[in-house]
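User: Predict the structure for this protein chain, please.
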Amino acid sequence: MNITLCQLNSQFVHSALAPWYLAAAAQQLCTVPHTIHVAQGTVNQTDDALIELLCQHEPELLGLSCYIWNVETLRRLLPKLRTALPHTVFVLGGPEVSFCAEAFLAQNPQVDYILCGEGERSFAALADAAAGVRGIEEVPGLCRRTENGIVCSAPPAPLEELFDPYTDAYFEALGGRIPYIETTRGCPFTCAFCLSGREDRLRCFSLDAAFTALLKLAASGAKTIKFIDRTFNANEPRARRIWEFLAQKRAEGLIPEGVCFHFEVAADLFTADCLAFLASVPAGLFQFEAGLQSFHPETLAAVQRKTDLDKLCRNLTALLAPGNLHLHIDLIAGLPHEDLATFTESFNRAFALGAHQLQLGFLKLIHGSALRRDADAYGMRCAAAAPYEITENQWLSPADLARLTRAEQALDLIYNSGRYHRSLPYLLSLWQGGAFAFFSAFSAMLVPLGEYPAAEAVAECFYRFGCGIAGIKPALLRDLLALDTLSSRRAMRLPDFLKVRDDRLRRINLLVRTGDAHLPDADKLPEKFHAGKIGFCILYSGYGCCSDSEVLALFDYSDRNPVTGAYAVTTLPLREALGEPAGECPVCRAPF
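Assistant: Here is the predicted structure, written as structure tokens:
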């Protein structure tokens, strides 16, 4: 048969994995050969573009992978697809339809079949059945219409080993986007908001196959490679072997510098020995995402989340201390028994850990989860359309959730963006209240800027907000924002609200361009300047000095921290940079 398999991604930077698994399984398991094309699009494309993509090869069988981020787009496309492909067999699979297959099939007459559970064996069997070489009733995990109504067959047995999806065609299609790799399926935990713990066990697949795939992915041109194992360190000895392999191959030069591996971990599971090893890995090689979800004990018990909170905090602090890996932590708003006050406590405690990113997420009542099943008992209501985000429960009103949503936007723009490394801590040091109250207060100033404000507009808004805090020194805040602006991205210029008219800037420009001897690394400056790799500004508040002396800040855009993404900054007294006569600090009398 002529088959097209498709996954619509949420953004272009993401890549698909499921269709390639299905294609690899079909190649090995099908009785007769099939011609299989894998198509990838995004939910941001127009309907016409997606129809053209899916009809390109005139498939006899069209398989669509369904997730919370693409199912509404697929629902909308199905009638148009049926018109364009009237004789094609449509089969859907994936977590978004596996746990509501009968209802989805009944509501979408364009769909012929739904595959529930792991799709590799099921899809290969269905491809053969559609080609007429086996009976449709033999396909495991198949939901279909019959004369007696909709019926679903028993799911396939879980795979004991994965089919290799990393073919030449896969890498040709990857094009530098984020690739994904899976070394385990299932999860030993049974969190009520998640699907991964529905299995009875954690299945671990071949390490040798994973090692081979990792080297291929590292050489593909991708900068970030994500493991989709739900709790990567659930089996710490196994996780350690993979981490050691990656560190060794980086040392051998087989993994290029700049390639980073992303893992979802349970921070309370780390042993002291493993933490000591992780402290030794090259900076930027790993990034971890650790789900906290809540610090409220009653909430954690209700969602069956067993966590040693004290150990978790200690381990997160230990992971951050060496400064060699990026750490992302998560909270979920809308869980049972957590009202605005207790969530604020969770937020403040999580923020105080100092992770590089703190994601404030909102509970999604996904099909198949225990919380969706028990939603009425908690007074939970959610949006009818995917991703089924909660709209209220017994503890949080719609108004509470709206306030949390506004705070989330402020958190993402100011903290998670990584653009305010110096100015944010300064303002928080003067703020009379916790971190959540800070972001909640600032969020009110963002409302006029809309949902997707420009970076410069956010920075100016942040400056005006900061100038209203008691005890603030506006000149110092200006300087900190100037440092943040020019070190967090290759900006090369300051926004208008931070600019100070100063004729000496032209002189500094000339000195940097010619490599004046008074400047650090003077011999390298001209080449970097002409390559656009040097920025500079004048600080007027005495930042970096014990007095109110003026300071020159130089930004090296060839030297970027692989963990924080910040560019290197060098500061020196402006008089020294300009070659003017030495003076002394009016405060401590130190010479400069």
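Residues 583 and 589 are 9 Å apart (CA to CA).
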